[in-house]
Amino acid sequence: MEERSIIVELVSFEAALAHHNSDAYQKAVAALQGGLIRDIRLIEGWGGHSK
Q: What pTM does this model have?
């Protein structure tokens, strides 16, 4: 099985939670119909800015 890691940076931890819990995201996940295994980890950032 091929594995992938994807890192997404959002403006805040709260924004990440809101996105994950949004109707649009949940609808997209439902469309996959179990076609993949997901391991989601929401991690609060270090507070700096990326370049």
A: 0.63
Our CA angle for 13, 25, 11, nearest 5°, is 25
Domain limits of the chain?
Answer: 8-46
Question: Which is nearest to 8 in space by CA: 21, 26, 20?
Answer: 20
Q: For 29-43, give one letter per residue: b (16+ CB within 10 A) or e.
A: eeeeeeeeeeeeeee
Spatial distance between the Cα atoms of 51 and 41, rounded to a whole number of angstroms: 22
Q: What is the pLDDT of residues 15-51, one digit of tens each?
A: 999 999 999 999 988 998 877 788 888 888 766 665 5
Task: Give the pair of three-digit tokens for residue 11.
Answer: 């403006």
